[in-house]
Amino acid sequence: MSKLVALDEIQAAQQRIAGVAVRTPLYRLERARLRMAKLAEPEFDIYIKAESEQPIGSFKLRGAYNMVAQLAPEALKRGVITYSSGNHAQGVAYAARALGTKAVIVMPDNAPEVKKQATAALGAEIVLVGPASSERRLKAEELAAEFGYAMIPPYDHPYIIAGQATCGLEIVEQLPGVDLILSPVSGGGLLSGTATAVKLASPQTQVWGVEPELAADAKESFDTKTLVEWPVSKTVRTIGDGLRTQSLGALNFEHILKYVDGIVTVSEDEIYAAIRIMLSVTKLVPEPSGAVTLAAALFHAHELPRARKVAIILSGGNLEPHLKQRLEEELAAN
């Protein structure tokens, strides 16, 4: 087994990213507003950890900055590279700009246009490849070897895990007595980090992952205790573009097996419903990948442990404008 991230490393990351990443608020989802939306009222209070309010609109800034900030000066001079469908791309680009270095980002050609544009606006050089997560990783490794760029992986690294873990540490600080925390899961950076921080700081709190049924490689891996990989032809089917990674990272999987209590999946219809609900009853804008936790809380409570206080991580708010407009028009028509 690899060395797992320790609490003091997470606390050090918390200090390192302070002033760059935001200590995001935790909003209570008012039950009365759910009743007004004609939804069944849950038996627990829901609190939304709004990572959509990070400077890049997603939690990914935490891990990216934590890793880039620890590079040696000579590595910073050469520049950094990563592979990402969008949010980690922006995190690395933002961190690189803040620290005065070049960023090269390998992105899939089917990444949302809003994420491509945001990454370019941060000054990064974008290289487009096919939709497979393995394809963009291989291209990034090839460019790193050719030009000497420092690789900033999207999830499978202790510095990334420690950075994302600060989100979980904030939740237990902000909501004493939280019973259950729900985190999206794709490559596993956020879930592994959150679960590690929470179990080390608040062992009684349950931590569960949530992913789309159409990209449920993490649940299969967790249930079988064997790291599996799904083909891109399957994972690309989900609207949750940030959750299409074909497999958990190896180090993330080790943390998940040790600290995570369970993983639940949600349907595409439930993801769309959760986006609509959040748009209608809160002032928050969720991207599909960030809405899966609300979908789990509202539609899969029977699969989750009994709880009074449930915190759900809204991992990102980079919703495609055309999709946002369509959903808002549907809400207005009802």
TrEMBL record:
It comes from the Bacteria. Its cofactor is pyridoxal 5'-phosphate. The keyword Nucleotide-binding does not apply. GO terms for molecular function: L-serine ammonia-lyase activity; pyridoxal phosphate binding; threonine deaminase activity. Keywords: Lyase, Pyridoxal phosphate. Its EC number is 4.3.1.19. Pfam families: PALP. Residues 23-316 form the Tryptophan synthase beta chain-like PALP domain. It is an enzyme of class 4 (lyase). GO terms for biological process: isoleucine biosynthetic process; L-serine catabolic process; L-threonine catabolic process. InterPro entries: Ser/Thr_Dehydratase, TrpB-like_PALP, TrpB-like_PALP_sf. PANTHER family: L-THREONINE DEHYDRATASE CATABOLIC TDCB, THREONINE DEHYDRATASE, MITOCHONDRIAL-RELATED. Belongs to the serine/threonine dehydratase family. This is Threonine dehydratase. It comes from Granulicella arctica.
